[in-house]
Amino acid sequence: MSLAIDSVHYIDSTDSLLRRHPANPILTSKDWPYRINSVFNAGATLLADGSTLLLCRVEDRRGLSHLCAARSVNGVDGWNIDPSPTLMPDPIGYPEELWGIEDPRITYVPELEQYAIAYTSYAKGGPGVSLALTKDFRTFERYGVIMSPDDKDAALLPYRIDGLWALIHRPMTTLGAHIWISYSPDLRHWGSHRVMMEARKGAWWDANKIGLSCPPIETSRGLLMLYHGVKQTASGCLYRVGLALFDIQKPEVCLLRGDSWIFGPEADYEHGGDVHDVVFPCGYTLHPDGDTINIYYGAADSCIALAQGSVRSLLNWLDNNGKTNEEEPICR
Ligand code: BMA
Prior knowledge:
Elements: E1 19-20, E2 38-46, E3 52-59, E4 65-72, E5 80-81, E6 101-109, E7 114-123, E8 126-134, E9 141-147, E10 151-156, E11 165-173, E12 176-177, E13 179-184, E14 191-197, E15 209-212, E16 217-219, E17 222-233, E18 236-246, E19 254-258, H1 268-271, E20 279-286, E21 292-299, E22 303-310, H2 311-321, E23 322-323
Antiparallel strand pairs: 1-22, 2-3, 3-4, 4-5, 6-7, 7-8, 8-9, 10-11, 11-12, 11-13, 13-14, 15-17, 16-17, 17-18, 18-19, 19-23, 20-21, 21-22
Bound molecules: beta-D-mannopyranose.
Beta-D-mannopyranose binds at residues 41, 102-103, 239, 275, 278, 280, 298, 301.
């Protein structure tokens, strides 16, 4: 009897899709110029001179988070870390930041000639999505909370669609923790909310709770999304990363979704830390070849690590392992 083993995906290894950098973890609390508890979940971007900027979530020794910039010529080592916090919560001007700001995702927006940072602002009402614009990661124009609690895991798309800005985010609703997209004429007023992709149910690795990882990657095939799935187990949550592809001009249309995760906690620094068994990417940079990708992720809510891959290989993997909506309802 020939068991359809290919369909079980045992032979389609994801091992080489994203390779951990030998220098991992690339940033830890020991590297910090001031006393902190942990550093993780960093947004990433390339600056005009080709160097890499990470906007890191730093948790202080009260348990509250702020953001701090680290710059490096090669994106791997030689980090130049701001000597004091780059963006502190401002609970007086922005009460939604009372308990800190977390998990930034950076999008360079050519039309505005600025970087847009979507981050979690945390206060009594729960986590919400806030937005700030900057040209230099030194001064910031805050837009305040743009998605009210409970909402997080957000990134702005770098272009308008039919004149409207688009924001991917993850509201918690009675329907569950699914990925949504919303539109705005001015970055302040948001509507036309639509579900992009739902969490699966039951025993799946991405059951019940999913969220955007890095901002989606623009490719010739569509918007390539890395997303995290959270599996609840008897010994806690397992945070892993999967892949899906969406239409560039109609991002609520899901073209392909992989069944299995492509990256999960395996290394010691991912298994052990303040929160065990977490890989949580918030940023990526693309090499000048247009294909090699650096994915920066928080490991175990304690440090920052780097995994490298190829956009072409990620798309190939989705072609071979992803399902379309015609095959089965992949996103609902
Ligand atoms: C999520 C977010 C992340 C965190 C992860 C694991 O809900 O709060 O900031 O890394 O949980 O603790």
